Amino acid sequence: MDFFARQAQVRSSTRVLVALFALAVIAIVVAVDFLVFTVFGHPWIRMADLAGYQHRLITFTTLGVLALIFGCAFYRIHSLAEGGSAVAEDVNGIPVPPDVTDPKLRQLRNVIEEVAIASGTPVPDIYVMPQEAGINAFAAGYSASDATICVTQGCLDHLTRDELQGVIAHEFSHVLNGDMRLNIRLMGLLYGIMALSVIGRQFAWTSNGGYEDSERQAENKVIGYMFGMGFIVIGSIGYFFGRLIQAAVARSRESLADASAVQFTRQTSGIAGALKKIAVVPEGSLLQVGNRHEVAHMMFGDVDAFNSWFSTHPPLMQRIRTLEPWFREQQLLPLERAMTNDGLAGDDGFAATDDDATVEKKELPPLEWPGGAGVATAVAPAAAVVAAGTVDAPPAPANDPPSESFQQARTVKQSMPPSLIAAARKPETALTLVLALAMSEHEELRPRQQRFIANAFGDDVLSATNKLVMDEMTLTAAQRMPLIALSFPALKQLPQARLGTLSETLDAIVGIDPQVELDDYCLVRLLRMYLREAAKPRKAPVDGQKKLPTCRDSLSLVCAVVAVYGSSDDASARRAWLAAMSQAFPGEALQWQTLPMEWQSSLDRALDDLDGLLPVAKEIVIQSLRSAIQADGVVTATEKELLRVVCASLHCPLPQMPLAA
């Protein structure tokens, strides 16, 4: 299932969520009304003076319960306004700094950075739950700009690099497919409908025991105790609907995320291996943190051993066999013996790469596969298994290489100058790096740009920027945007006032050039959008409602920019533009749109306009742009980086398009 089909599934999940939440609220209100009417109407309570006021009592009770539920939900959502980092810290996660040196944490960061570069998103904040021995992970946030990936210590201790990559790709599918915003809203709604059980326990505890001075006080204590026990019972209604909502929303999305991870990495062995290890390690995917049920619907695996129709994930063996149809449960035994005999299976997975710190690798014995050693190295083709969803697909040769995007991402990162990667790791040096990237190639323009930098940040920042310019000049077009993605976590740590000054300075120094280069425009546009959304996560755009014909002029301009900058001559540009627009508006009369002199501001407005489209219309836009890019049979780095900016502006994943050799 692609991104745009996934959006329809997300909207369907939202409707299910709203319906179940409405049922939960109605059930709770009715139950509380019944409790109040029963308690105050009991002869022993002696509330005869309320006779004739039952309707008013029920009305006030109903309004009070509604205010409590929605007030608690609003409070919880507001407490998570900072986005993914707030969720991670709420479950005792600790941040992994960009310049981390611990081998396992460094490898985690390397894997996440490579997946981010391959998917065309900024590198998310990274957290680890060091007290959690189970193998689990989650993605949280309102948009890709404020996303957080959090993994347990069990992931670091037990998973190989490929398995860790599979888990991270699974979580990135939630980032790319818009699941995270719904997950945070669900946390708030669940908090609201489960609040009564907490209040009930407080009532019952404060009303139990002790002595009273009067009969009236004794009656008040009885009333409090009855309400407390009643609220505890009613709270179980909230718990029932809460778990039901989690299961209804999460199960199908987790299966789709498994499929997306396979499609993304082009191998089943990574994510399937992680699931197998969950099946054999004693802790499984369990969490110990007290509020684990709040985040159960966004985790990679089940957070407790309670398997039933309330489970937020499909059964573990079902997930494994969807990926590897020939797999049988008894084949877990050799892996289980290997991981439990010495208790050091956590060291088995960290094969060193060029940019990973070396961690000792311990080999596990091969699994015993039916049919001989040839089948032992077989995996089903990712697309066939995922699309068909069958368990009888024939095995195919294994060791499928990672997708071209992953290979390119690792190659691009490893080919960057070390000084620039080091600069991207810390807030102040990341600021100077971005300024260096925006400096013009024309020597005659730099003095004016340098004055802007000195006036905004001082001579020290200017000096540091100048030192990075020479290294920056060695970058290829394919390296500039990934370097911005790498620097984003460090940039977000700067004060908002300094980030505002950075945005203004970038506009000023790029605007000095009367003919702004496309790569400079892409850099400033992408960074400005990421920083704006990261500063106010809850205000990140949601799905629009516009239809494509209302944005025809905007699409025409975007296609014209792509065609002009991706073609060698005017005739080729016109053919590319026509190919794109014909796909979006087949059979209609089309007229070539000449780029205006100030195309940058026009393109900004056009991209903002297209971001308001319905998801199905955005799909047509992306397909049209791919037609323009591929019209000459060559995909250049400049074209791909422009497509990266367009996809980011439309909040769509970057499609995989191999670069020209």
Automatic annotation (TrEMBL):
InterPro entries xref list: HtpX_protease (IPR050083), Peptidase_M48 (IPR001915)
Keywords on record: Cell membrane, Hydrolase, Membrane, Metal-binding, Metalloprotease, Protease, Transmembrane, Transmembrane helix, Zinc
Domain Peptidase M48: 106-325
Pfam short name (any one): Peptidase_M48
Highest taxon, organism lineage: Bacteria
Cofactor(s) it depends on: Zn(2+)
Name the UniProt record assigns to this protein: Peptidase M48
Annotated source species: Dyella psychrodurans
Lineage: Bacteria, Pseudomonadati, Pseudomonadota, Gammaproteobacteria, Lysobacterales
